[in-house]
Amino acid sequence: MTRQIAFNLFEMNCVGHISHGLWVHPENNRHRFNDLDFWVETAKLLEAGLFDSVFLADVIGTYDGYRGGPETALREAVQIPSNDPLLVIPAMAAVTEHLGFAATFSTTYEPPFAFARRASTLDHLTKGRFGWNIVTSYLPNAARNFGLADEVEHDQRYAIADEYLDVLYKLWEGSWDDDAVIEDRERRVYTDPSKVRYIDHRGTHFSVAGPHLSAPSLQRTPVLFQAGSSVAGKAFAARHAEGVFVGGRDAAAYRDNVADLRRLAVANGRGADHIKTFASAVVIVGRTSKDAQRKADEYRRLSSAEGYLAHAGGGGIDLAAYRPDEVIDDILAREDRPGRDRRPSNRRHPAGTTVGEALERITRFDRGPFVAIGTPTEVADEIERWVEGTDLDGFNLRQFLTPGTAEDFVELVVPELQKRGLYRRSYEESTLRERLFGPGTTRLFDQHPGARYRNGANLGGEAATLAASPAAGAAGTAAPASPSYA
């Protein structure tokens, strides 16, 4: 292998993300997540370790499907308490120059106009290092938090997301020309109104006039990430996503899913290399195999099966409520209701999986399929084997201890990967999109659907530039004198 492998740290603005129970470990600092210094220290560590980005997960509801309520999630700190992922990014950006930031935000419950400005603001403040993980939110509690009786049906959520993205592309790519801001002090014109336009979007789910409130940022559209293994999810990723978090039961399934995504991207008029693919990675490394196994044993001992069950019960079925010999597919067929998406936490199980088999797998602290426990050489061998066998572009490093997991990876695994030419020795790119696709690729590829709105193209007959007016002044003419308030 000669191509470098990308690595993101998988994070969440909470105590317990996905390694449930380990917040009690004496070397874990997860309880400091409310402290801005926690995030500043994390960012400095990751930049020193030459990570691609920190990837911030999020949910907007609590896991209350297990044992009929949220008590287990609260007791075990299963992604509650949690804070907004977007708000810690500026602090991390202030102490780094290269590290990227990818944050999760849902398209289902909040309107697109306000998020468009938040995203542009973050891309400005990070100097083009911001990415957005697009989710449609599957928790029933999330729907109730935003005034709905139950979840929006799965494929309907993706239909909403498609239009949501269309609105955002119009705002990010089409509302302002690159040279709209002229900062002409002599003529007292900051922005040329003839180069800013309404978008006048009127669709099935959204009506947005515009113009976008933020001037164009370095990337305009943030780097777009998405995770989806359903038919609708894959179709959505093939249209929109630039980075995709792939799933599968084993390396062969990952290989098939990666190939399928690239095929679907081409079918959508995009390049097969316009999508980068990532897998979740369990990496527990020690200077010796015995040291690595000692760490794994300790994590296993402190892990909480109840925490994992509460997490799994958030969007699917409450496995604790059924006999171990019952088949999950039979339960879903018997109890499914219109409007309720019961599949997300169960889609990882092969057909015919029983409740008992699912319980055994879900409660494993080291469930994979990518798991590497050993010395730096052994871990690097497994990483290299997986990338060669699956065509993956990189990994999201799952944390067991903060900052211990990342510290171990930086100190022990990174030098081994660098020796093999599989990991960068310095940063060479300025923006997050360039990190994925190479220097000079700051904005969306021309073949991406968002690019069709550049310079106001394809906005529709009603969209128009903001005509020069006596109140605004026009480029090339002097603006009226400011009124006196003396």
* Amount of beta strand: 5-15%
Rg from alpha-carbon coordinates: 24 Å
DSSP E strands, number: 13
Helix and strand run: EHEHHEHEHHEEEEEHEHEHHHHEHEHH
Largest sheet: 8 strands, parallel, barrel
| Outline type | globular
Ranges where pLDDT stays below 50 over 5 or more residues in a row are: 337-347, 468-486
The total count of helices amounts to 15
Helix content: 25-40%
In the sheet with the most strands, the strands line up as: 1-2-3-4-9-10-11-13
Q: Indicate the mean pLDDT.
A: 90
Class by SSE composition: alpha/beta
Oligomer: single chain
First CA to last CA: what distance? Answer: 72 Å
Describe this structure in words.
The chain has helices at about 35-50, 70-75, 90-95, 110-125, 140-145, 155-175, 230-240, 250-265, 290-300, 305-310, 330-335, 355-360, 375-390, 405-420, 430-435; strands spanning about 5-10, 55, 100-105, 130-135, 180-185, 190, 200, 205-210, 225, 245, 275-285, 370-375, 395. It has about 475 residues and is α/β, with parallel strands linked by helices. The longest helix is centred in the middle third of the chain and has 21 residues, at about 155-175. The model is unreliable at about 335-345 and about 470-485 (pLDDT under 50). Strand 10 (about 245), helix 8 (about 250-265) and strand 11 (about 275-285) form a beta-alpha-beta unit. It starts with 5 loop residues before the first strand and ends in a 49-residue tail after the last helix. It has an 8-stranded parallel β-barrel with strand order 1-2-3-4-9-10-11-13, surrounded by 5 helices. Helix 13 packs across helix 14 (about 405-420). The chain is built from 15 helices and 13 strands.
